[in-house]
């Protein structure tokens, strides 16, 4: 087991955001977190990554409390992509991606080669010399994902990503998620926060349904992504069908659902 969270609780301005959450991220597994806005998904990722400390409970990486790892040690073991990636300097795309490789201690040539590999894998090679600030939102998100993936080296164990493909077109969503799937298949513990049910079912091994800061359910995709649980999670009707080996989803809302 790469990363384990036990009894996580977190309070913000007198309000409890997470309630006694347990989660295990196993090596070689891709876990998807689903939930409505304000459910505590981003807070959970911040606690799992060490960006915030829990009010109570603990996060352990390979059996050791996460706060016991120095920042350089943690950066070599764990990479994280939050929703907000502020960057106001006119770096080139290649320079931004190479920033991610800094914790690996590579030589300049190795760092350049490593960054270019991720530029190629995420279909960014043609943008390598472009000014990052002149890119579209989807292109910037792809560059930031490449930067985070460039942080992954031989020691890397855990990858935590908050809505990493939300601004991308369909082709690049699948291209990027396939790369994340490959990393999980190669032995990393990968956690994604997503909103797209179809993508979650297609690429995930396990799912955590988070509602009001509590785990509504968690487990393998077929056991958790059911019509009953998803309807309870999102408070709309959700139909789930299994066709040609694929889970398919549709949603509906009653006519009076939004009446005052």
Features:
29% strand, alpha/beta, 12 strands, 9 helices, four-stranded antiparallel β-sheet, Rossmann fold, six-stranded mixed β-sheet, 260 residues
Describe the protein:
It is a single chain. With 260 residues, the protein is an alpha/beta fold. It has a single domain (3-220), classed as Rossmann fold, CATH 3.40.50.300. Helices cover 33% and strands 29% of the residues. It has helices at residues 41-49, 71-77, 93-99, 108-121, 137-150, 170-185, 197-203, 221-224, 227-234, and strands at 3-12, 15-25, 30-34, 56-61, 64-65, 78-81, 158-162, 189-193, 206-211, 214-220, 237-243, 246-252. The longest helix is centred in the C-terminal third of the chain and has 16 residues, at 170-185. It is globular, with a radius of gyration of 19 Å. It starts with a strand and ends in an 8-residue tail after the last strand. The mean pLDDT is 94. GO terms for molecular function: ATP binding; ATP hydrolysis activity. Part of the ABC transporter complex HmuTUV involved in hemin import. Responsible for energy coupling to the transport system. Keywords: ATP-binding, Nucleotide-binding, Translocase, Transport. Residues 3-237 form the ABC transporter domain.
Question: Layout of helices and strands, plus pairs?
Answer:
Blueprint: E1 3-12, E2 15-25, E3 30-34, H1 41-49, E4 56-61, E5 64-65, H2 71-77, E6 78-81, H3 93-99, H4 108-121, H5 137-150, E7 158-162, H6 170-185, E8 189-193, H7 197-203, E9 206-211, E10 214-220, H8 221-224, H9 227-234, E11 237-243, E12 246-252
Parallel strand pairs: 3-8, 3-9, 6-7, 7-8
Antiparallel strand pairs: 1-2, 1-4, 4-5, 9-10, 11-12
Helix pairs in contact: 3-5, 4-5
Domain ABC transporter: 3-237
Protein name: Hemin import ATP-binding protein HmuV
Pfam families: ABC_tran
């Amino acid at each position: 087991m790469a990363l384990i969270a036990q009894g996580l609780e977190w309070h913000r301005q007198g309000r409890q955001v997470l309630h006694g959450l347990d989660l295990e991220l196993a090596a070689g597994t891709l876990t998807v977190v689903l939930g409505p806005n304000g459910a505590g998904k981003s807070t959970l990722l911040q606690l799992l990554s060490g960006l915030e400390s829990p009010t109570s409970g603990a996060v352990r990486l390979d059996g050791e409390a996460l706060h016991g790892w120095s920042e350089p040690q943690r950066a070599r073991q764990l990479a994280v992509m939050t929703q907000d990636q502020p960057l106001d300097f006119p770096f080139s795309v290649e320079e931004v991606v190479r920033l991610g490789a800094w914790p690996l201690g590579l030589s300049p040539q190795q760092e350049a080669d490593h960054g270019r590999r991720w530029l190629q894998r995420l279909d960014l090679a043609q943008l390598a010399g472009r000014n990052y600030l002149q890119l579209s939102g989807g292109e910037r998100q792809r560059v930031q994902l490449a930067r985070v993936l460039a942080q992954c080296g031989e020691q890397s164990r855990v990858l935590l990503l908050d809505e990493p493909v939300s601004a991308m077109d369909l082709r690049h969503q699948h291209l990027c998620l396939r790369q994340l799937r490959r990393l999980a298949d190669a032995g990393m513990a990968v956690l994604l926060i997503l909103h797209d049910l179809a993508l979650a079912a297609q690429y995930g091994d396990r799912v955590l349904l988070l509602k009001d800061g509590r785990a509504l359910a968690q487990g393998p995709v077929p056991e958790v992504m059911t019509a009953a649980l998803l309807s309870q999670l999102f408070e709309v009707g959700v139909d789930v069908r299994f066709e040609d080996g694929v889970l398919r989803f549709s949603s509906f809302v009653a006519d009076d659902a939004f009446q005052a």
